Amino acid sequence: MKAVLKGRVASLRAGAAGLAMAMAGLFPADAQAQLPQTEQPGGTATAQADASAPTGAEDPAQAVDKDIVVTGSRITTSGFTAPTPTTVLDANAIAANAQPNIFTTIAQLPSLQGSSGTSVNTFSTSSGAQGLSSFSLRGVGAIRTLTLLDGQRVVGANVTGVPDISQFPQLLIKRVDIVNGGASASYGSDAVGGVVNFITDTRFKGVKGNVQGGITDYGDNEQVLVQLAAGASLLDDRLHVIGSTEYARDQGVGGGDFGIGLAGGRDWFKQTTLVNRNVTNDGSPQYVIRDFAQSIGFGKYGLITAGPLQGIAFDESGKPFQFQYGSNGVPSRNASGAVIGCFAGFCQGGDLSGNVDAGRSLLSGLERLNSYGRVGFDFAPDNEVYVTANIARVRTNNQPVGGQNRPNLTIQCANPYVPALVKAACADAGITSFQFGTSNAALGNSQVHTDRRQYRFVVGTKGRTPVFGTDWSYDIYVEHGTNRTRIDVDNILLSRRFNQAINATTLNGAIVCADAAARASGCQPLNVFGGNPSQAALDYLMPQNGPRQRTRQTQDVASLNFSGSPFQSWAGPVSIAFGGEFRHEFYRVTADPYGAGIAASPYNAEYPFDPVLLPAGNNWYAGNYKNGTGGYSVKEAFVEADVPLLNSDSTGRASINGAARITDYSTSGTVWAWKLGGTWDTPIDGLRLRGVTSRDVRAPNLSELFAAPVTTTLPNFFDPFRNVNVLAIQNTIGNTGLKPEIARNTTAGFAFSGSRWLPGFSLSVDYYKIKIDDVISSLGATDIVDLCYRGILPETCGAFNLNNANGPNFINVQAFNLASIDTDGFDIEASYRWRRPLGLPGTLTLRALATHVRKFVTDTGLAGTIPNDTAGVNIGNTPDWKWLAVQSYETDTFSLLVQERWFSDGVLGTQYVQCSAGNCPESTQQRPTIDQNFVPGAFYMDIGGTYNVTSAVTAYVKVDNLFNRDPAKSPYFVNPALYDVLGRTYRLGVRFSF
Fold first, then answer.
1. Are 384 and 461 a contacting pair, CB within 8 Å?
2. Domain TonB-dependent receptor-like beta-barrel, which positions (predicted)?
């Protein structure tokens, strides 16, 4: 199979080379040849500018004689410039990047930090976010970034409320506006980090399509993308009908094998581990980073981990052999299980065959089918009634880890599956049992499958009409969205059945489970030594119906917005926008009874009752989904105004912009959001100053308010009020008492473009600062009780009762408005557009965008902790510097593009003190010592090109990660939010338009 895949890579390389020769050595994207611009000629690739226009290009609002909706503001009059910096990607830039999902193109922008996607959450079984593509601006999380479609909300594809970009109609996107700043006053909750707004082409005419294929240098992640869109205008150009459909499939990557062998033969994984020496004052670092770490707690097919037989391992056939410990380690052969010469829990080198991390998927497989339609009718000039439908299905799959490792097992020497040599050794040592750990390679690997289906419908009317002598714009719509999510986990064991199955005995000459009650309920014995379990044992441990979760989310919205200029000031027309919105969010999630609890599940008939299992649930090795339901309603109203202050050649043009929004949440009451800012087109040709400050909000989401409950028994929980240990029940639940997070968001900077004395050059620099208070964060049971006992957080006192005369003692573990986030930095963009460079035909465009994060401080709000600054921590989402540079050359026949992506070197954590042996201070909890606190940055280069076969057909090629740069090693496997984990990727495709 690998030879076939390598052959496909070779063929694709040859095809790429042939196309490159046909283009005379070129590489992606002739702006005008690839996608017709029916409403927006003269667009540009990427630009950070005022919300009304891209930098360094013609203003799209001026390119057509109509108003343009400015993302980040509700004012829709011509010539309006909002004070909030906005990055704009038009259809040409999106096409040039030649990605199978528009999400990837946008996520590459420097201001987007911590976005998810198919390479993130691949290690997860239970998160529900596998394969979910969602944006995070400024690193504050996807839940604090508002994603819109044509300025309208989209139903969430996860209980956190974030939508899935894979469900959007991608071929009809004519531009994407990324508002780098708070916009809650204009759009409501969640717009703390900013807004990503997808604008569709509602007047598209003709037929266009795109066919693309791709594969990595390792012969995996085969990709197929087929897109088709059509549009027509009927009834004297009054009826506009458009539609699109697309199919995409990404094969995904991984998982790999046990040990350190990644999928496709990738060799960059070194099983790097952060080892805690548990020594703080011997002059050496407490933490050390070591490659090729070997767990001493389990082996691939089994390892005796403590006692006099420690170090006996078992091969696939079950034959015992002496395990090879790394670091020349020698087993202590006592109850501690320590290995002399090794670290606690780890050796270095030796037999790594049982390591499980390499089994993780590097990229989730994804299949998406998306259909979109819109019908609009102009019932009067500049007035339209319309209906849209977006139906999409996205299926993903991932392998969280290799095997289902189980350390710390106790095996009886009398177990009939114990090899005779080991039984004899037990007798010689005078023991009746031994400690045992296994990767459970014989049980195979678990697989997680998600299926998200979106049904979204909008009916609305918008247009322009005169009122008292001036034109007013209006936009009124109602929306209903439903998202249904199915999660199924295959090939995963039931932990308590496993415990019973490995405890085998002989009865009437047959090997059976030792526990009579377990036998009566169908227990089948498991030979845990080696790799040959019986099919009956596998069926018992891992029933066909594995963990499952079914979620239904709905969103209903009714919105109306009005905008106009009712009167003039001394400097020009005063523009006003106002409106209101009602929104209702609801979700219901149901899970299987083995995970959620026998009495709580509607699927009991499919999951037979088993007295071995816990009636309250939590029986699976992983994937113990829970049931939950909840909903809330939102009523809000806003007003916004733009007042011109200056308008002359000597003073320039200046205006002040302000907005206020009042919002009433059914769960948390009333909250205000506002913004105040302004712009000044100075008398200096091309120089604009801008600034805005705002109060933004994020309301608690459905998951935080109504989390599906999880119950855990705490047998010896300490009660500080009575100074005794008690039996308590921990209930992990939502908190309907949560309040909205409150943020203060400020940006200030300048933009230089359109100068007569420096044509084609643009530059913008903006400073930003976000401070979020009352951040919703979860507390553990001990923290909840302790914070109440010490009087630090009185609101936790109602979350527990440890002296309950009327029932069991309990602690409700839930989220509280407790933490804070404080971040600031700079956004910089420069671009230059040179027509006929050096007398050559065509246009040369140079562009670079950069974000510098000066600080990103999170304060948990807990006593005894210090704020943590993660700016420059490259195992997180916020490197010190991140930039994207693009150089493109375009003619009427071909185009070529070179793109560079880079982020700076960083650290493992700002709390660490790096030192070497003999020179370390005492290590403390807040300032621990470490031998290596460096994580390198990365530089990636992408190239591509197009060739216009005819006026309607364009062929293109793209190579990402040209130099096949491997990700940096990490003690946490890898950070796919920053590093490319796939390696060099090739894509070929054809676009057409008629």
1. yes
2. 451-962
- Range(s) of the domain holding residue 231: 79-255+363-401+449-488+549-591+627-993
Cβ 927 vs Cβ 975: under 8 Å = no
Kindly state the helix (H) or strand (E) to which residue 595 belongs, with its residue range.
helix 593-596
Model confidence pLDDT, tens digit, residues 13-42: 444 433 333 333 322 322 222 222 222 222
Is 621 contained in some domain?
no
Backbone phi and psi for residue 609, each to the nearest 5 degrees, phi listed first: -65, 140
Does residue 567 lie within any of the structural domains? yes
Looking at the structure of the chain, the number of domains it has is 1
Of 902, 874, 906, which is closest to residue 976 (Cα–Cα)? 874
Closest CA to 382 of 461, 316, 329: 461
Provide the sign of the torsion angle of the four alpha carbons 770, 776, 780, 783, taken in this order.
positive
| Six-digit token string for 832 | 């230059």
Is 518 a member of any domain?
no
Write out pLDDT tens, residues 486-544: 999 999 999 999 999 999 999 999 999 999 999 999 999 999 999 899 999 999 999 99
Assess if residue 59 is contained within a domain: no
How do residues 300-342 score in pLDDT, each as one tens digit? 999 999 999 999 999 999 999 999 999 999 999 999 999 999 9
Q: What is the CATH number of the domain that holds 91?
A: 2.40.170.20
For the chain, helix, strand, coil in percent to 5 are: 10, 45, 40
Q: Give this prediction's pTM.
A: 0.90
SS (H, E, C) 62-103: HHCCCCCCCCCCCCCCCCCCCCCCEEEEEHHHHHHHCCCCHH
Which amino acid makes up residue 294?
Q
